[in-house]
From TrEMBL, chain A:
InterPro entries in alphabetical order: Bact_solute-bd_prot1
Ranges that cross the membrane: none
The protein's name in its UniProt record: Extracellular solute-binding protein
PROSITE patterns: PROKAR_LIPOPROTEIN (PS51257)
Species: Paenibacillus dendrobii
Keywords: Signal
Signal peptide stretch: 1-19
From TrEMBL, chain B:
InterPro entries: MetI-like, MetI-like_sf, UgpAE/MalFG_permease
Gene3D superfamilies hit by this protein: MetI-like
Main location as per UniProt: membrane
Domain ABC transmembrane type-1: 71-285
Domain of life from the UniProt record: Bacteria
Keywords: Cell membrane, Membrane, Transmembrane, Transmembrane helix, Transport
Name of this chain's protein: ABC transporter permease subunit
PROSITE patterns, per database record: ABC_TM1
Stretch forming the signal peptide: none
GO cellular component, one term: plasma membrane
């Protein structure tokens, strides 16, 4: 036995370690060999350009038979339009596996010509001078639409990839999912003869009427007013958050914001305390789900018809309301924008617009290829070449992972744009075959719904309500945006953040459900600061200064 | 030992090997990962590439107020489960043993045995419904003229519910062994004692209990080793942020902080704490056993 253990130990110890020597990155910047025509967004190369990539693959590989990551509908499209061919230096499942391969590549200095990296790795690559400056090629080789799309974030998207005034990467964008809306059972409002809500006070009245009069016939005391998540608020663009309530106090829980020239964590402000105060009051009055703390599935509460209202983004009609509608065809959920004064304007915080970064290896002869491919995939393919058959087949077949570079660039108001396109198509002002594939599916549902709204099925109702009502409301509501100033991770966060989050979750839930008084909030703030929050706040301020 | 004997033991060793391999793969090899507790572990760099930070993770663990709470919760809930999880099956087995109707005995035994086969995900759903605002418990309270309580969101009740439901789920299964042990007691002893005029209660104290004592000790010892592992799925399915104060145990904490919060090193350090608690419990149980009943557990 002893011998066996020894052997096992030796085996474990002898796992070899790969140590890479960092190659010196090319000291002189080689000029691109492209001609001025080849430098334009869609200029085709005279000779095929082969480029290597780090390929991030989907968790479950789903390619049509006979196609591979290096040879599929998308690579074929790029070959035909630009005469370029990808070669995978490494392939790894997106997430940890991919990040690990990237770390190895960075450590060994053996980078692919192009790949995607996270914010931390990007900084590391910039510091070690391993990636190319894209300022010039972005100007010459990104299409106008791509530039417009980036600009729709008011410079915030590219700013995240800019170091000392140089553009070092092209980010994938995360488009807006705000404002979230108040979804209410319109059929209940009608039954009780209530007006549609415009203000927070209206909502309070409606919730009171819902729980007192039980318009859904759930039985005494079983109707839930507002369905609310255990996290209370602060999850961007998600279901069941109370961010709309907090925003009326100008409170932005869980966000790093600037207040009087100082960086503060939004969960600690007096405004947040006020917001929690209101929610605690509502909970006490029974307007908020009394069992929110132990509620397992808020969705089932809504699907079963027990809840009368919740906050959610425009797509709430697809999920979870599609199931609610399936269960009860008269459950008529409608979205509303409520504000303090009923003006219809709303305050909301924005999210990190740059999610991942695409970089070019320093020394690669064709740095212009990144903006060119990004333009081909995000502009030409979705406009001029919308009906390019191999890609249409690829998408309608439900396949995934074809694009050699998964860079996605969308307008910040992509949802609003979707609404406008669909509206134009429904009104007959836009040809249906100029719609994107996704929009065409929605268009069909909307037309079916409009034929006979009374008889429409749940899918048709969802398609119509999310796109023609929810997205419309989103596109037409004036939003006073508050931009959080920091999204990354600092050194101390690594060790201490999870505990602070736990403290925050616990405190918010206890205050709202009345297990602690509102004054406990002050204790929470001081504990938060003492157990690491102070250090982290300093580091965040430091990180912003550096930028 | 003689050579001849050793050769004869080969098949026994082979029979043991699956267990040994299981132990090595799932208990010894992961011990290697304890190194993470002394590192600033980064998955991409691995254990060999991550920086060493000495005792930083342990220092931080002592700094935050949570550590003591979690340790206390773990010990209280674990001890509660050990004590009640031992006593209840014994009492139940003794009571069942007194039933003379054979079919009633069999069917009761089967019914109470069933919950053991259900996963906690299922039992938790039932428990949540029972303690729901509109569930039977609260309806009864309201009938008695009391205010309904949200038991699962109450720090006064959460531990009791955890221990109670765990005992409820497992006592039927636990009782089986004792019932078997009861049948092993020589009926001659009962006959002799009744001739001597012993009452049923005296028989219980002087014959039945001593008769099953070795079994009780053995089962307790086996339970002890496992008890700190047994809480995760149950508590995870039933808790919520409000009852972190009384219900958050080492396993759930490590899961949240380590896997969801991605603080691998810190979570490993906290997990190491669990091993320390387990070892302490086991050693003290052994000492207790030696002192009280003059019997070694191991």
């Amino acid at each position: 036995m002893k011998k066996f253990l020894l052997t096992a130990l030796v085996l474990m110890m002898s796992v070899s370690v790969f140590t890479g020597c960092t190659k010196s990155a090319g000291s002189s910047e080689p000029k691109t060999t492209a001609t001025s025509d080849e430098l334009t967004p869609y200029g085709k190369y005279a000779e095929t350009v082969t480029y290597t990539i780090g390929k991030s693959t989907p968790g479950i590989p789903k390619l049509p038979e006979g196609q591979s990551y290096e040879n599929n509908a998308y690579t074929q499209y790029l070959k035909e339009t630009l005469n370029v061919q990808s070669k995978d230096l490494f392939e790894a499942k997106s997430g940890d596996n991919y990040d690990q391969k990237v770390s190895m590549a960075v450590a060994s200095g053996d980078l692919p010509d192009m790949m995607s990296v996270g914010a931390d790795t990007l900084r590391q690559l910039v510091d070690n001078d391993m990636i190319a400056d894209l300022t010039e090629v972005y100007k010459s080789s990104a299409s106008d639409l791509v530039k417009e799309k980036y600009d729709s974030y008011n410079g915030r998207a590219l700013e995240a990839a800019t170091f000392d005034g140089k553009l070092m990467a092209m980010p994938s964008t995360s488009n807006a999912n705000i404002p979230t809306m108040l979804w209410v059972r319109k059929d209940w409002l009608d039954k009780l003869g209530l007006a549609e809500p415009k203000t927070v006070a209206d909502l309070e009245q409606i919730l009171t009427a819902f729980i007192q009069k039980d318009p859904g016939g759930n039985g005494k005391g079983k109707t839930v007013g507002l369905a609310l998540s255990k996290s209370i608020g602060g999850l961007y663009g998600s279901l069941f958050q109370a961010d709309n309530i907090f925003a009326t106090y100008h409170s932005f829980p869980r966000q790093w914001i600037e207040q009087d020239g100082q960086v503060v964590y939004g969960s600690l402000t007096d405004e947040t305390k006020q917001g929690l105060g209101l929610l605690a009051d509502w909970y006490k009055k029974g307007l908020i789900d009394p069992q929110m703390a132990v509620r397992d599935s808020i969705e089932s509460l809504i699907i079963s018809g027990e809840a009368g209202a919740f906050f959610g983004p425009w797509w709430s009609a697809d999920y979870p309301l599609n199931d609610a509608r399936r269960q009860n065809n008269s459950a008529d959920w409608k979205p509303y924008i409520i504000s303090e004064d009923g003006s219809g304007e709303i305050t909301a915080y924005t999210q990190n617009p740059a999610a991942e970064f695409y970089v070019v290896r320093k020394g690669f002869e064709h740095p212009e290829l990144l903006p060119k491919i990004a333009s081909a995939l995000n502009d030409k393919l979705v406009r001029e070449d919308l009906n390019y058959q191999p890609v249409v087949d690829f998408i309608t077949g439900g396949f995934d992972g074809g694009k050699p570079l998964g860079i996605g660039i969308n307008f910040n108001d992509a949802t609003g744009q979707m609404y406008k396109d669909l509206k134009a198509a429904v009104d007959g002002e836009k040809k249906v075959d100029t719609l994107t594939l996704d929009d065409r599916t929605s268009y069909n549902k909307i037309m079916e719904y409009l034929k006979d709204p009374e008889k429409a099925d749940a899918n048709q109702w969802s398609g119509y309500t999310s796109r023609m009502i929810g997205a419309k409301l989103m596109a037409e509501t004036k939003v006073n945006e508050v931009n959080p100033v920091f999204f990354g991770q600092t050194k101390s966060m690594k060790l201490k953040w999870a505990n602070l989050v736990k403290l925050e979750d616990e405190t918010f839930l206890k205050i709202v459900t009345g297990q602690e008084s509102l004054d406990y909030f002050d204790t929470f703030v001081s504990t938060w600061n003492k157990t690491g929050g102070n250090d982290i706040t300093k580091e965040v301020a430091e990180a912003i200064k550096q930028k | 030992m003689k050579r001849k004997n050793k050769a004869g033991q080969l098949e026994y060793h082979l029979m043991m090997s699956p267990g040994i391999i299981f132990l090595i793969v799932f208990s010894f090899v992961p011990m290697f990962g304890i190194l993470m507790a002394f590192q600033d572990y980064v998955p991409a760099k691995g254990i060999f590439g991550s920086a060493w930070v000495g005792l930083d993770n342990f220092k931080y663990m002592l700094e935050i107020p949570d550590s003591m709470k979690i340790l206390r919760n773990t010990v209280v809930i674990a001890l509660g489960k050990i004590i009640f999880g031992t006593i209840v099956p014994i009492i139940f087995a003794l009571l069942l043993n007194e039933i003379r109707l054979k079919w009633a005995k069999k069917s009761i035994q089967t019914i109470v045995y069933l919950p053991n086969f259900l996963s906690w995900a299922v039992v938790a759903a039932v428990v949540i419904n029972i303690f729901d605002y509109h569930g039977p418990v609260n309806q009864f309270l309201q009938f008695m003229g009391k205010d309904p309580t949200l038991f699962l969101a109450s720090n006064n009740w959460f531990r009791q519910i955890i221990i109670g439901t765990d005992v409820w789920k497992g006592f039927g299964y636990g009782a089986i062994v004792y019932l078997a042990a009861l049948t092993g007691i020589d009926p001659g002893l009962y006959e002799a004692s009744s001739i001597d005029g012993a009452s049923r209660f005296k028989q219980l104290i002087h014959i039945t209990l001593p008769g099953i004592l070795p079994t009780i000790m053995l089962i307790s010892a086996l339970n002890l080793g496992n008890i700190l592992n047994a809480g995760f799925d149950q508590i995870f399915a039933l808790y919520n942020p409000i009852v972190y104060e009384t219900g958050d145990v080492i396993d759930t904490y490590v899961y949240r902080v380590g896997l969801l919060g991605q603080q691998y090193s810190f979570a490993t350090a906290v997990g190491l704490l669990k091993s320390v608690v387990s070892l302490t419990l086991l050693l003290s149980a052994n000492q207790l056993s030696i002192k009280l009943v003059k019997m070694r557990i191991f």
